[in-house]
C-alpha cells in the first residue's frame, strides 16, 4: 500500500459514508466520475485517492461499492473495536458519550472519568462516571487504547502524560492544548472547536 | 492585505491564543523564532503568515504582542458580536451552548431551536429553547448572522436552505452532511466529529 497523504486520509471517512449509502441503496457499482460529482472533486483526484490503497476500479466497469466500502472501513479500523475512555464528563464529554456512535465507528466505550466527586456514580449513556483517582487501576485492567480528552486546558498536558504512561495510544483531543508537540509518540487527533468558530468569523467578515 | 491561505487561516486562532497568553503574562514583545518553537513550525513560516496581514515585526525588535494580538483578533471578528442561533438542542447542541464561550469568540448567542415540542421552554445556559416553528419570525426580527447546526443528517439540507432564505450568512455545521456544495453562497464551517474519530482509527492502526 502506498503511503496515504493527510488530504486523502481526511477524505476516507467521506468515501466510506458515501459508499455505505450506495450499498444500502442497492447500488452495486459506481465510478470515479459519480463520486467526484457528489463530493465536489475531480475524477482524477478520486482515482488517485483510491489507487493509494489498491482500489478496485476496472476500466469500463468502475468500482464495486461493497468491496470498496469494506476495504476503506478496514483501513479506518471500523472492525477493531478499540477500547475507549472519556476523561472529563462535563457538558461536552457527556454529550459526546450520548451523541457519538462509538460502536459503529470502530470503538468500544468502556469508561468515563471526572475529577468532580459529585459526578461519581452518575449514569451517562448507560455508563457510570468514575472518579479520576481510579484511572490507573482501570487502565491496567481494561487496557483501553484511546482517550477522549474533554478537560480544561490547564489539565490537558499532565493528563496527556499520565495517559501515555498508562499505555493509551491515541487521544481524541477536545482541549485547546495541542498535545502533539509534547507527546510525539501518541496519536493526537485535535478537535479545536473554538478555533473552528474563530475561523468562521474570519470567513464571515471576508465574504466577497 | 494579501489573501490569506487556508493553512494560514487555520493557524490564526492559535496565534491569537498564544499572543493573548503572552500579553496576559506581561510579555511586551516576541519573535518569530519564539512563536515557531512553541507552535512546532519554522520561523520563516511564521514570518510569512504574519506578513500576510501587515505584520508588525521590526528587524532586531520582533513583534509587539499586544498590537499583533489585537490585529489578529480584528481579522477573526472577535469584536463583531455576530448574532448566533443554535438549531437542534439535543445533547450536542446543549453542550455547545454551555461549553463554548461565544462572547469571547466574537458572537452573541441569541436563540436556540428544536423540533421537539417537549424541549420548548427548557432553559439551557440561561436561554430558552424555542420550537422550530418560530424560526422564521425570530430571524426576521433578530437577524442573526450565524447558525450552529446540530440536527440529524436527514434534516441538514432542508434546514440549510431555509437558513439561507432567512438571511443567515454562515453555518457552523455539526451534521455529517457537507452543506458547502449545495449552499455555495453560505460560509460553511464543518466540524465532522465522526470523520475525525475515523481518521484517528486509521492513524492508530498505522502507528509505526
Fold topology:
The structure is a homodimer of 208-residue chains.
Chain A: H1 6-24, E1 29-30, H2 32-39, H3 43-51, E2 63-64, H4 65-75, E3 82-87, H5 91-99, E4 107-114, E5 123-124, E6 127-131, H6 135-142, E7 146-149, H7 153-165, E8 170-173, E9 187-190, H8 193-205
Parallel strand pairs in A: 3-4, 3-7, 4-6, 7-8, 8-9
Antiparallel strand pairs in A: 1-2, 5-6
Helix pairs in contact in A: 1-4, 2-3
CATH class of the largest domain in chain A: Alpha Beta
Residue share in helix of chain A: 40-55%
Q: Are there runs of chain A of 5+ residues with pLDDT below 50, and where?
A: none
Instruction: Provide the β-strand percentage band of chain A.
Output: 15-25%
Order of neighbouring strands in the sheet with most strands of chain A: 5-6-4-3-7-8-9
Radius of gyration of chain A: 20 Å
Named at the architecture level, the CATH assignment of the largest domain in chain A is: 3-Layer(aba) Sandwich
Question: What class do helices, strands and sheet pairing of chain A give?
Answer: alpha/beta
The number of strands of chain A is 9
The CATH homologous superfamily of the largest domain in chain A: NAD(P)-binding Rossmann-like Domain
**Nearest-integer average pLDDT of chain A:** 92
